[in-house]
């Protein structure tokens, strides 16, 4: 029997350019499994990196293939980064978007960003 868990992911990227047809290039990724402490994978910063692009790509492929739920805040953005830059498509992976969930809880809220919530 396989134990399925929820994984929360958040990409840190270079500056977002309005109107750009491509998502900004990622420089890091925060990953949290279930209630375990989170880990930050830095791979595109000028200094202080603790991993590399290839390791993150392999980790993302495994997360998608193993059937666990992926949780994002603004999934459209992060899944776009994952797909464009790492060529990892979510396929049949279950995706949760906490930004949409926040809207459903309070559709009259002035802010749906992660920090205000």
Could you give the count of β-strands? Answer: 5
Helix percent band:
25-40%
Q: How do the strands of the widest beta sheet line up side by side?
A: 3-2-1-4-5
Question: Kindly, what is the distance between the CA atoms of the first and last residues, rounded to a whole number of angstroms?
Answer: 36 Å
How do the helices and strands follow one another from N- to C-terminus?
EEEHEHEH
> At CATH's second level, what is the architecture?
2-Layer Sandwich
What is the CATH homology-level superfamily?
Answer: Ribonuclease H-like superfamily/Ribonuclease H
Q: Which term fits the overall shape?
A: globular
| Coarse structural class | alpha/beta
What does the average pLDDT come to?
91
Uncertain segments are none
Q: If you consult CATH, what is the topology?
A: Nucleotidyltransferase, domain 5
Largest beta-sheet details: 5 strands, mixed
Strand content: 15-25%
Number of helices: 3
Provide the domain count: 1
Secondary-structure map:
Layout: E1 6-13, E2 26-33, E3 39-42, H1 53-65, E4 69-72, H2 75-86, E5 95-97, H3 98-105
Parallel strand pairs: 1-4, 4-5
Antiparallel strand pairs: 1-2, 2-3
How would you sum up this structure in a few lines?
By secondary structure, the chain is an alpha/beta fold. The chain contains three helices and five strands. It has a single domain, classed as Ribonuclease H-like superfamily/Ribonuclease H (Nucleotidyltransferase, domain 5, 2-Layer Sandwich).
């Amino acid at each position: 029997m396989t134990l399925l868990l929820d994984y929360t992911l958040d990409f840190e990227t270079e500056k977002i350019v309005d109107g750009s047809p491509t998502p900004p290039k990622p420089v890091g990724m925060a990953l949290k499994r279930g209630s375990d402490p989170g880990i930050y994978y830095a791979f595109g910063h000028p200094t202080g990196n603790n991993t590399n692009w290839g390791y993150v790509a392999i980790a993302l492929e495994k997360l998608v293939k193993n059937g666990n739920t992926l949780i994002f805040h603004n999934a459209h953005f992060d899944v776009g980064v994952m797909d464009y830059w790492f060529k990892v498509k979510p396929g049949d992976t279950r995706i949760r978007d906490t930004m949409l969930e926040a809207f459903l809880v309070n559709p009259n809220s002035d802010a749906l960003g992660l920090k205000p919530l």
